[in-house]
């Protein structure tokens, strides 16, 4: 287990030091089965003993949340199952933080979920969180260790966050020490925010977001983020490698932006439309170079080169598809219809550069203490497109949530 017995110990300590009359505790049981239909050429033809292709997967998650005055806690016990693989059980802490007022300011200490984003398919300003378009996971996200200070006046807010303050400034990765300053204000017909942040990897990050209500039925939203530095994992271009072939390559003056809207039509119809650009994803030329490399690697299967060597290199090439940032340019359309308290959604994620797409049809039903969400997903498009190259062809998914 990642944090063996840690979750249980924190809960017991939390309960033993407080008055039960002021304590709230909630439990949610989340069951998420997934059934996958793989393409014949999944993972560039790499055998399942190198890259598994589980037809059936599921996760059972018990989420535990509690509040006592300014102390908040959210954690889970998660059991993951994948066909023909060993099951795993982990205890995780999503959030544990303490809020208090001091000198006219609101302070927050501990691990906390922080989201600045504006958007449905992508959120450029979410510098402390990422979103994968391939995932159907409905469990709570994980927070960051932080010290936060907020100043509120009317409908405006200024917030300062120091993320991972315990880390050395030279550390890289998810626990990178970062400082972010955000200004938010809400007006009669629009909300706006501005953000500036710094860490040793990206250097300066600056952006802004806007939500504007045009009419009772129509709103538009946009956000923009500029990063001084970003690092991409770029393949070295060699056909055969004896060690991991990806290298961190520095790119300067990166941008990520989104523009979209929400049209609430009559009779419970709703249309969401967005277009975004993400510089952190590989460009069309970079994907083309990688796929040309794959073609040459596959040709070596007919040569005297040992098949194991070729398949290991193909597996490394397939690693490029395992990321939240796949295509730089994306169009997102989502149509919602809500008859009889059931929300039905049809969503299209389309990449105009190579004509690949992800289509999702889903439904959602909320019955107070019970909620069910499920649907089907298809990965398709041009056979040379990135979304088509993803290993899964069709996917059936469901999430059942029981609150008690």
Quick tags:
mainly beta; 404 residues; 11% helix; 4 helices; Porin; 18-stranded antiparallel beta barrel
Biggest pleated-sheet summary: 18 strands, antiparallel, barrel
Fraction of residues in β-strands: over 45%
* Coarse structural class: mainly beta
What sort of overall outline do the alpha carbons produce when their principal axes are compared?
globular
SS element count, helices:
4
Mean pLDDT level = 91
For this structure, what is the CATH class?
Mainly Beta
Between the first and last Cα atoms, what is the distance in angstroms? 26 Å
Q: Which fold does the CATH topology refer to?
A: Porin
Question: How is this structure best described in words?
Answer:
- The protein is mainly beta and 404 residues long.
- It has a single domain (97-403), classed as Porin.
- Helix content is 11%, strand content 53%.
- It has helices spanning 6-16, 284-299, 307-318, 386-389, and strands at residues 23-38, 56-68, 71-82, 88-102, 105-112, 144-153, 156-163, 178-186, 190-199, 203-213, 218-235, 246-265, 269-278, 329-337, 342-351, 356-367, 370-381, 392-403.
- The protein has an 18-stranded antiparallel barrel.
SSE topology:
Elements: H1 6-16, E1 23-38, E2 56-68, E3 71-82, E4 88-102, E5 105-112, E6 144-153, E7 156-163, E8 178-186, E9 190-199, E10 203-213, E11 218-235, E12 246-265, E13 269-278, H2 284-299, H3 307-318, E14 329-337, E15 342-351, E16 356-367, E17 370-381, H4 386-389, E18 392-403
Antiparallel strand pairs: 1-2, 1-18, 2-3, 3-4, 4-5, 5-6, 6-7, 7-8, 8-9, 9-10, 10-11, 11-12, 12-13, 13-14, 14-15, 15-16, 16-17, 17-18
Helix pairs in contact: 2-3
